[in-house]
Design goal:
- The complex is a heterodimer.
- By secondary structure, chain A is α/β, with parallel strands linked by helices.
- Chain A folds into 3 domains: 168 residues, Rossmann fold; 70 residues, no CATH class; 167 residues, 3-Layer(aba) Sandwich (Rossmann fold).
- Helix content of chain A is 35%, strand content 25%.
- In chain A, strands 6-7-8-3-9-10 form a 6-stranded mixed β-sheet, with helices on both faces. In chain A, strands 16-19-20-13-21-22 form a 6-stranded mixed β-sheet, sandwiched between helices. A 4-stranded antiparallel β-sheet of chain A has the order 2-1-4-5, covered by helices on one side.
- The two termini of chain A are 48 Å apart.
- Chain B is mostly helical.
- Helix content of chain B is 69%, strand content 1%.
- Chain B has a two-stranded antiparallel ribbon with strand order 1-2.
- In chain B, helix 13 runs antiparallel to helix 14.
- The longest helix of chain B is centred in the C-terminal third of the chain and has 27 residues.
- The two termini of chain B are 27 Å apart.
- In chain B, 44% of the residues are buried.
- The chains are: A alpha/beta, B mainly alpha.
- At the A-B interface, helix 3, helix 4 and helix 6 of A face helix 9 and helix 10 of B.
Chain lengths: 510, 329
């Protein structure tokens, strides 16, 4: 293949979503044959910028140039024609599990290039799929169903789909987040092979800084929708300087942490593993009235840990103890009986019954106490709902309002309220502030503080380190399903949490 | 990735993939051992094929609907309506068979617009929409016939004498072997080629596997769901005509009872050969399994009223084998 040089550039690109400025005057350019890392904390704008290049963010302002010429990237097909291909992190949303590898690789061509032909040329489809996979140095049986593949193999199928047609710029959105170490190494080998053999440009979005140093030629750091820096990667580049650049020190909103009286050891998880390898030998403990934080980047295993404790995901081995008694939790129903509560990350899907009323939701965690011989006593549930609507400051016209009509913050209060009504002893929060505004956030924090004051154990998982620093007493940092460090909140810093979040094993130097 | 690829499927997986076939072969061996050549003979093979032809035709209709993740509870009540149309065009108006066939197919397709309206325009989930339509079809069909069956020697809806006094040999031949078997095989082969080798079939499967991904690949999902519906309508009409000819009458709700066996055939056939999607050959095997059991069990002297229980149990066994390795959510 001839080595032609192509460039991708953007000038003054901005994009605004309702109420948020997602990108502000971004200037970025990249040439052929490089592996480039896009870095930044959650919500920094990396994915938004990449979607502009992929034509999936048609509302941008500013200019995008390919080979020095201005192009209008208003739909994904234009981007594909220009040789810009993107592979998103959620592989299962893009793959068709019940179809073969060959078809999944060739699906775009099956739809676009058929013209008037009615019959699928199977030998040709298989051959081209095979060739494309071979270009990636991947050897898969093209007749296998995609649902039988491992996550890493599925990703390879998607990358193959991206390069079936001419591909000059390949964007990989967090490709390594769900992969194991060996699989990650395979991916890197393939990426290097693409660069060397086809002079392709690969842009990586990732949170794993060690990988960046290992495989990338250069990096760019984004923060709050702006590019704040970047440099070629040399022997001297350290993760420390990148972390500093990612954090900046611009934001310092702090939430009032009220002192609570911390009591005796009450809740203990030891050597917990799940069956999927996402929770790996985790031991944590929590005292009465203590708020412990679980830090870690997206994909570190925080959600899986929460769900495994709660019995919503199968535990492989390990032990959970409450009040000195070993619990047998096989499913969420067992956990609720033992007075453990989970406020899950996917609020609308998992946290509340979205089409039910506020009244019913607030009773749902402990419906038994509102019943007379299996009949729900409406007077009791109504009294319960009124009590908590007032106590928690849930803004709703009436308790008969359907939860779907409340704002995100108020929905979250309902999700928490149902467990307070159930009088749980251990509260697990998984990203409770996701998608709620600043005021609601403060109220949720106050609520969690109040729960701790009652002498309950609180586990607070979040990838927002600022929040953990302001609300918790102690922080465990997770990476790749493992606890990397246990830190006293009063004595730690955002830098230190980030240091362990990206997988560092050596002690933090400060 | 060479190292991580499982190039050889495990033996258990192969066994699971062919569970329906294995259960069927086991059944054949057992019945042969008990009944000898009265079961294992060309004559009886024809018997079984004839018995399975109608179920298979309706099951293929269901397969085409289910390929893009659709569902149709009302296919067989619609078939009863088609049966009335076929019998009445032939008897009451005395139209020649080819014309009666074409009119029946067209009317069935027109009636199917109602199904498509509810599903595609009103966005009612398939299961609920077709559940409601079952009753609509039953009432509509009997409204057309005036509340009775359409059979030879009976007067028309409007009280006049029918143009034809009775059935002809060629009309009755449609439901007899070898024609009903040939029709069944033709429908199966058509569906197999359509679903496996044409781009349309692959799009339907893409929709069934992951509707959003299919849409984002540029497939017009509404158009293809409609297309699947129309093909189902044609197949349903064909099934109805075979039933009418076999019964020598368009009986009241004459096709309704084929719904459950045909759906069962599709479910059993889904996993045949590790396909994991409704497919024509799998459906044929599913229907064959159902009929081999019926035939064999009757021969070994199982009372007809116990038959459904045994038939259901064996099918459940085939399904258990096929789904036992599936991961739990």
């Amino acid at each position: 293949m001839e080595k032609e040089n192509s460039t991708l550039e953007c000038r003054n690109v901005s994009i605004e979503f309702p109420g948020v400025k997602a990108l502000t005057n971004v200037n970025f350019s990249i040439g052929s044959g490089t592996i480039h890392a896009m870095l930044g904390a959650n919500g920094a704008g990396k994915s938004t910028l990449m979607k502009v290049f992929a034509g999936a963010n048609p509302g941008y302002t500013g200019e995008v140039l390919v080979n020095g010429e201005v192009v209008e990237l208003r739909d994904t097909n234009t981007a594909k024609r220009l040789g810009i291909q993107i592979v998103y992190q959620e592989v299962d949303t893009a793959l068709i599990g019940s179809m073969s590898v060959a078809e999944n690789v060739m699906i775009n061509s099956l739809v676009m290039d058929m013209g008037k032909r009615q019959f699928v040329n199977w030998p040709n489809i298989r051959k081209r799929a095979k060739e494309t996979l071979e270009r990636l140095n991947v050897h898969l049986n093209v007749n296998e169903l995609c649902s039988n593949l491992s996550l890493a193999e599925k990703q390879m199928v998607l990358i193959a789909r991206a390069i079936v047609h001419e591909c000059k710029f390949l964007i990989l959105d967090e490709p390594t987040a769900p992969l194991s170490d060996t699989e990650t190494k395979e991916l890197f080998k393939m990426v290097r092979h693409l660069r060397e053999t086809y002079n392709m440009t690969v842009i990586f979005i990732t949170h794993r800084l060690y990988e960046v140093l290992e495989v990338c030629d250069a990096y760019t750091v984004m923060r709050n929708g702006e590019i704040v820096g970047g440099a070629p990667i040399t022997e001297q580049t350290t993760t420390k300087e990148i972390v500093e650049m990612m954090l900046g020190h611009s934001f310092d909103e702090s939430f009032p942490k009220e002192a609570t009286e911390i009591g005796e050891e009450d809740f203990e998880v030891s050597h917990l593993c799940d069956t999927e390898g996402m929770v790996n030998d985790v031991s944590i403990h929590c005292r009465k009235g203590e708020i412990i934080g679980i830090a870690g980047l997206v994909g570190a295993g925080k959600t899986e840990l929460c769900k495994t404790i709660f019995g919503a995901m199968k535990a492989g081995s390990g032990e959970v103890k409450l009040h000195g008694k070993t619990l047998k939790i096989k499913n969420p129903s067992d956990a609720v009986k033992e007075r453990i509560a989970l406020v899950p990350e996917e609020r609308r899907k998992e946290g509340v019954l979205i089409t039910e009323t506020v009244e019913f939701n607030l009773a749902a965690g402990s419906l038994g106490q509102f019943c007379n011989a299996s009949f729900v006593n409406r007077a009791k549930t109504a009294a319960n709902a009124k009590k908590y609507v007032e106590e928690l400051g849930i803004k709703t016209p009436t308790i008969k309002q359907v939860v779907a009509n409340l704002s995100g913050g108020n929905q979250q209060k309902v999700a928490v309220g149902k467990w307070i009504a159930a009088d749980s002893d251990v509260y697990i929060f998984d990203e409770p502030t996701k998608g709620v505004d600043v005021n609601a956030k403060t109220e949720i924090f106050r609520l969690i503080n109040d729960i701790a004051k009652l002498g309950k154990c609180v586990i607070y998982a979040s990838s927002e380190n600022q929040e953990l620093l302001s609300i918790s007493d102690r922080i465990y940092v997770m990476y790749d399903g493992k606890i990397m460090a246990e830190l006293e909140t009063a004595k730690t810093s955002e830098d230190e949490i980030m240091h362990y979040s990206v997988g560092a094993t050596e002690a933090y130097a400060g | 990735m060479t190292a991580t690829m499982k190039s050889n499927k495990s033996l258990t997986r192969v066994l699971m993939d062919w569970a329906a076939v294995i259960v069927m072969i086991a059944a054949i061996i057992i019945f042969t051992a008990v009944k000898g050549t009265s079961f294992f003979s060309p004559v009886n093979a024809i018997n079984i094929l004839r018995a399975m032809s109608i179920t298979t035709i309706f099951a293929i209709g269901a397969t085409v609907t289910m390929a893009p993740d659709g569902f149709d509870m009302s296919a067989c009540t619609l078939a009863s309506c088609s049966g009335y149309i076929f019998a009445s065009t032939f008897l009451w108006w005395g139209l020649p068979i080819p014309v009666a066939v074409i009119i029946t197919i067209i009317v069935t397709m027109v009636l199917y617009q109602l199904t498509m309206l509810l599903i595609l325009v009103c966005h009612i989930p398939d299961m609920l929409a077709t559940c409601a339509l079952m009753f609509v079809h039953q009432g509509l069909g009997l409204f057309y016939t005036g509340g009775g069956a359409v059979s030879a020697g009976m007067s028309t809806r409007w009280g006049a004498a029918p143009v034809r006094p009775g059935w002809t040999t060629s009309f009755l031949a449609i439901g007899k072997s070898p024609y009903c078997i040939i029709i069944m095989l033709a429908v199966v082969i058509f569906a197999h080629i359509f679903l496996t080798y044409t781009k349309h079939g692959r799009y339907l499967y893409a929709m069934g596997g992951n509707k959003i991904a299919a849409k984002l690949s540029g497939i017009n999902t509404t158009k293809y769901r409609y297309m699947a519906g129309m093909i189902t309508a044609v197949i349903v009409a064909i099934g109805a005509m075979v039933v009418t000819s076999r019964n020598s009458a368009a009986q009241i709700q004459g096709c309704d009872n084929y719904l459950m066996p045909s759906l069962a055939a599709v479910f059993v056939g889904r996993s045949v050969g590790g396909q994991e999607k409704p497919n024509a050959l799998g459906t044929l095997i599913g229907a064959a399994l159902v009929c081999v059991l019926d035939n064999g069990l009757t021969q070994v002297g199982v009372a007809y009223y116990v038959l459904p229980a045994v038939r259901g149990a064996v099918m459940a066994l085939a399904l258990v084998l096929a789904y036992i390795t599936k991961k739990q959510d």
